[in-house]
């Protein structure tokens, strides 16, 4: 899974990228104009930690998210730059950082602090980008009308004009009714308003308690299942990340912070994308894998390795909750909690799988 981090310059997006990926990318105004930063983040999962303690494998591997921190979005009226578009289009979801902290040494590009305004400004650029894609595609399709592929070109033109109309009315494509066949047809264009968005309000150190209200205000502007929001203070989270585990817990307790914001953002992203985690284990490795909710056992096998999907016979399955209560695979088998499932089994979040397959 790949998530693009973007926003106006000096919003704190690169600081958040550093927190999520444990990187040290340069921050500040000059850095906001440089090329994209890329990094990986381990998905925290206490279930995996517990399984690793029980099985004591040589290696424990968390599920992974790749983050791409793109250059700061400029208010141009001409959409995103070609480089920004390339970086954002290849992502599965978008993480939009909006600024709600004051700092005289780091002036806001618009002169004032207004996270709701900034969210609208960047979202408008996303609409503009998608409209340009539709317009350009329609023009190309018109040139194909006289060729042998006239019928196909006509059908796609009708679809593109329909999408263009929705965008002009201010309807994000993620909220527009598109059939599976139509979605397959336009998938290659990677429309930005088709992607789910997590809006992160970066508040000041003295405004932690006000973060929830700011989030509610922004969400009121985007009543969509494909848009969610959360808040954090990037500077405080940075301080926490530099402390020992014991000191960090004490510091967070003093501030009334129940969990690291990075963990909350990852969990929020997972939920928004409809993702779950399943586990595999052995003497060499205990590992968490990412899967789209609703996927069946052969698909999960293919996430591990394509050979497992091709030769899939059945899966030996026990859910983490049952395993944790029973205490071992043998106990699960004795209690009838360990099941053999076939190709139609829908994998559940927290399932522990052992794939049986033909070589």
List key phrases describing it.
alpha/beta; 359 residues; 6-stranded mixed β-sheet; flat; DNA polymerase, domain 1; Ubiquitin-like (UB roll)
Helix content class: 40-55%
Structural domain tally = 3
Q: Please give the CATH architecture of the largest domain.
A: 3-Layer(aba) Sandwich
* Biggest pleated sheet: 6 strands, mixed
Spans where pLDDT lies below 50 across 5 or more residues: none
The CATH class of the largest domain, by name, is Alpha Beta
Q: How big is the Rg?
A: 23 Å
Placed side by side, the strands forming the largest sheet appear as 2-4-1-5-6-7
Output the structural class: alpha/beta
List the secondary-structure elements in sequence, H or E.
EHEHEEHEHHHEHEHHHEEHHEHHEE
Overall pLDDT score: 89
Distance between the termini: 28 Å
Number of E-state strands: 12
> How many H/I helices?
14
Report the principal-axis shape: flat
Strand fraction band? 15-25%
Itemize the secondary structure elements and their pairings.
Layout: E1 2-7, H1 13-21, E2 37-42, H2 46-55, E3 59-61, E4 64-69, H3 82-89, E5 93-100, H4 115-144, H5 150-168, H6 180-186, E6 197-203, H7 211-219, E7 227-232, H8 234-241, H9 245-255, H10 261-273, E8 275-280, E9 285-292, H11 297-304, H12 306-310, E10 312-319, H13 320-326, H14 329-334, E11 339-341, E12 351-357
Parallel strand pairs: 1-4, 1-5, 3-9, 5-6, 6-7
Antiparallel strand pairs: 2-4, 8-9, 10-11, 10-12
